Amino acid sequence: MEPETLELTVRKLQTEDADAISEIYSLITQKAISPKFTEVVREHASQEKNEGHFVSVFNGQVVGFMISYLLPLGFGADKNAYIATMGVHPKYMGQGVGRKMAQEIFNLYHAMGIKNVYTSVRWDSTDLLSFCKTLGFERSEFINLQMDI
Is residue 21 classed as helix, strand or coil in its secondary structure? Predict the structure, then answer.
């Protein structure tokens, strides 16, 4: 059975969306969100070049968000884009919210001549890995490295 697809509006992130995004993120992670997270979302929304930051709205309510960046340089990679974070309200998961935002981002970057979009996903986040695979993401030639300091 195909998942239900909602009548959504996808639009650019606005500063007033920060509280709704923080609530969605808190529901997903099941943790309290720091005020710094909300502040960073507001900063993204207020950037002059707010190109790759989108929200999905259903019945006037923000039900999803996706924040991405252009990466003009990067260890031998051509100019590309990176999806830094995203989330869909648990009540609306599986209903096309994330897919619609991703398509908006892909269309934007394609029109800008960007050929690659990257993202990072925890190896044990099987639901997010599965979602990314349905969008067409595959393993890249890059690996994530970490150093605790």
Answer: helix
The pLDDT of residue 74 is 63
pLDDT digits (tens, 9 = 90+) for 80-100: 888 999 999 999 999 999 999
Give CA separation, 125 vs 32, 120, 121, 148, in Å. 19, 11, 7, 21
pTM as predicted: 0.84
d(CA 62, CA 89): 9
Residue pLDDT, tens place only, 15-70: 999 999 999 999 998 999 999 999 999 988 888 775 789 999 999 999 999 999 88
Amino acid at 94: G
Computed on alpha carbons and rounded to an integer, the radius of gyration of the chain in Å comes to 15
For residues 38 and 104, give the distance between their C-alpha atoms in angstroms, rounded to a whole number: 23
Quote the strand ranges of 19-139, DSSP E: 53-58, 61-71, 80-88, 117-119
Alpha carbons 24 and 51: distance in angstroms, whole number? 21
Q: How far is CA 130 from CA 64, 122, 136, in A?
A: 18, 12, 10
